[in-house]
Amino acid sequence: MGYDYLAINRALDEAFARCAIDRNRLAIGGFSDGASYALSLGLANGDVFSYVIAFSPGFIVRAQARGRIGNNNEVRIPLVYIAHGTADNVLPISSTSRIFASSLRKNGYNVEFREFSGGHHVSRQVVDQAMSWLTAGFHQRR
């Protein structure tokens, strides 16, 4: 991931300084390599991101996971949504998302994992399902 995370942190700092942002409603997401970045950055920065959406990720960079302290002094970690095509020949689901979802659950993460028929793409229907999940989370105001 190189130094991308530094640029992202600077952009977030600038956005926080300029805009009224509800920090309980921050999400990070992406597709393919972008999904891998979203998972890696979102899990490592659980004190910043409440939600992580990953469409067809290929890897997760291991880092010290962080959460944020909730209203009752409990540590809150991001909710995770992963969607991946069962016919993906670029990043096969059996060696990526199925393993990621299982491992994250074993490590205490709440993971919504959706398999869909199709290859290495994201359909409007898959995106709509993820946005419905995110919107429901926003309304619950974790």
Uncertain runs: none
Briefly, what CATH class?
Alpha Beta
- The share of residues in extended strands comes to 15-25%
Mean pLDDT: 89
The strand order across the widest sheet is 1-2-5-6
Apparent shape: globular
Number of strands: 6
What multimeric state do the chains show?
single chain
Tally the helices.
4
Q: Between the first and last Cα atoms, what is the distance in angstroms?
A: 29 Å
Q: Could you say what the CATH architecture is?
A: 3-Layer(aba) Sandwich
- Count of separate structural domains: 1
Biggest sheet character = 4 strands, parallel
**Helical proportion, percent range:** 25-40%
SSE order? HEHEEEEHEH
Judged by helices, strands and strand pairing, the structural class is alpha/beta
Provide the CATH superfamily: Alpha/Beta hydrolase fold, catalytic domain
Rg computed from alpha carbons, rounded to a whole number of angstroms? 15 Å
- The name of the CATH topology is Rossmann fold
